[in-house]
């Protein structure tokens, strides 16, 4: 489990992470979604103790990272896959990490196998494609067999088979009861992989919810006889609906179709048309981040 409380990180006067609080729970894949520059990588670096926060606290399985002995056996991470010593072979790269963390040789070979790199284990990383580097980074993250895993944009540079492999791996790791925290700016990727989503924009939390809740931000479209429109609007608004009148149609958020139907029929209002629209994750994401993206575009222009 990862518990982040009130995390703040500033670069100069700008806050890259601006008071983030969330919990990443075991046994499911938690997606970390946000537009470019939202603060995902910075947050992951703070969680891993690679950067110091100005404020806030991170606990891994209830304890600060510095209190964990052999941290690599508790937390594994794939961050920027380009930061490796490219003159080494893949096997030697993993051996060095393993030796520094008291991890045996057999685990190195098991992870090379798991990452689909066994056949190229003796080749220098210099000649690796971005996809192969990503696989090597994932092998390194798994080396200590940790219960908590962070992956920053793991499908970057992977081909279709590689993407499928990462997806299956994430789901398998979560099914084993591990905490899996994976960042992406690709909404479709999250829709296929994550059970739960944490969405940020401008370093702030925008949503922390099961993926089904975000996909199912439903709205309904309703038409009633013109003379009854005012009564219907009043009823739906009192039931917590956010009602927009568009010509003869009502657009309602916050009340589902069944409830709306019951309310209207209960009040003796005939329904001419009633339809439910489930917004896709992409629409929900754009809704949530629209303001954050706009703000960034303005900042860059000025
Ligand atoms: N070392 C640094 N020095 C100065 N500013 C930084 C540094 N690292 C990140 N930032 C700034 O902090 C903000 C958040 O960046 P971060 O890389 O965490 O976002 P991100 O969500 O991971 O974006 P992306 O999807 O583009 O990787 C950005 O405005 C970025 O320019």
TrEMBL record:
GO molecular function, one term: ATP binding
UniProt KW Phosphoprotein keyword: no
Signal peptide (from-to): none
InterPro entries: AAA+_ATPase (IPR003593), ABC_transporter-like_ATP-bd (IPR003439), ABC_transporter-like_CS (IPR017871), P-loop_NTPase (IPR027417)
Record flagged with keyword Iron-sulfur: no
Gene3D superfamilies recorded: P-loop containing nucleotide triphosphate hydrolases
Pfam families named among the record's database cross-references: ABC_tran
Sorted UniProt keywords: ATP-binding, Nucleotide-binding, Transport
Domain ABC transporter positions: 2-227
Source organism superkingdom: Bacteria
Protein family per UniProt: Belongs to the ABC transporter superfamily.
Protein name: ABC-2 type transport system ATP-binding protein
């Amino acid at each position: 489990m990862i518990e982040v409380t009130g995390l703040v990180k500033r670069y100069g006067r700008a806050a890259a992470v601006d008071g983030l609080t969330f919990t990443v729970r075991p046994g499911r894949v938690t997606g970390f979604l946000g537009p470019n520059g939202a603060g995902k990588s910075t947050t992951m670096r703070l969680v891993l103790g690679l950067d110091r926060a100005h404020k806030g606290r991170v606990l891994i399985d209830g304890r600060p990272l510095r209190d964990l002995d052999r941290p690599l056996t508790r937390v594994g991470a794939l961050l920027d896959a380009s930061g490796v010593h490219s003159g080494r072979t893949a096997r030697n790269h993993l051996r060095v990490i393993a030796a520094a963390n008291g991890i045996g040789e057999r685990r190195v070979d098991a992870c090379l196998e798991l990452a689909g790199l066994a056949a190229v284990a003796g080749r220098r990383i210099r000649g690796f494609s971005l996809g192969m580097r990503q696989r090597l980074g994932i092998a390194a993250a798994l080396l200590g067999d940790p219960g908590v895993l962070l992956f920053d944009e793991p499908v970057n540079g992977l081909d279709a088979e590689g993407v499928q492999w990462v997806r299956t791996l994430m789901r398998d790791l979560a099914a084993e009861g591990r905490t899996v925290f994976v960042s992406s700016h690709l909404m479709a990727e999250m829709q296929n992989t994550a059970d739960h989503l944490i969405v940020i924009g401008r370093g702030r939390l925008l949503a922390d919810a099961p993926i089904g809740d975000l996909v199912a931000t439903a709205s309904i479209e309703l038409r009633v006889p013109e003379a009854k429109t005012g009564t219907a609007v009043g009823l739906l608004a009192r039931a917590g609906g956010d009602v927009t009148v568009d010509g003869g149609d009502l657009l309602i958020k916050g009340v589902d179709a069944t409830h709306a139907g019951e309310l209207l029929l209960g009040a003796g209002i005939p329904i001419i048309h009633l339809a439910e629209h489930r917004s896709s994750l992409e629409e929900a994401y754009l809704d949530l981040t629209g303001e954050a993206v706009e703000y960034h575009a303005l900042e860059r222009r000025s």
